[in-house]
Specification:
Layout (H helix, E strand, L loop, with lengths): L2 H28 L4 E7 L5 H14 L6 E7 L14 H12 L3 E5 H6 L11 E4 L3 H10 L3 E3 L2
Parallel strand pairs: 1-2, 1-5, 2-3, 3-4
Length: 149
């Protein structure tokens, strides 16, 4: 077998595996099993963009009862969620997400670095004690799809 055939076979197999995994996710979603999605946010300039994506996601699937969502925040983005610094629109959006069942996880390491406690963050947050990246990996191991807009 020449190199071209070997490469083509490898690419074809990879494509088939990728397609099968997406087909299974679509089948699960249409069969009534809710998709589980985790959004990753660390860039302060993307806070509103990511919150907009989450709202679009909820709206796009027909409401929060049709998807299980989590938002894991670490690094500079966490400052936007400090109660003292959050603008009213952001506070309202976070409150609505919390009511809709979105897990709002704040990185424990970032909280320590920023010298902030859960009480100083907007209501609805939980602490990812072992770190935001650890929480992201945990959720992915539980079948959550990973999105980093």
């Amino acid at each position: 077998m020449n190199r071209r055939n070997i490469l083509w076979s490898a690419v074809s197999a990879l494509g088939a595996a990728f397609g099968a995994s997406h087909a299974q996710a679509a089948t699960d979603a249409s069969a009534g099993n809710k998709l589980k999605v985790v959004y990753h946010l660390s860039d302060a300039e993307k806070v509103n963009f990511v919150l907009g994506n989450i709202q679009n996601h909820i709206d796009g699937v027909g409401g929060p009862e049709h998807v299980t969502l989590a938002l894991v925040i670490h690094g500079p983005a966490l400052k936007a969620f400090h109660t003292a610094q959050a603008n009213p629109d952001l506070s309202k959006r976070v409150s609505e997400f919390s009511k809709d069942g979105v897990e709002l996880a704040a990185c424990g390491n970032t909280m320590k670095a920023q010298n902030v406690t859960l009480r100083e963050l907007l209501p609805g947050f939980v602490s990812a004690e072992r770190g935001g990246v650890v929480r992201l990996a945990e959720l992915q191991s539980q079948g959550y799809l990973y999105l980093r807009p």
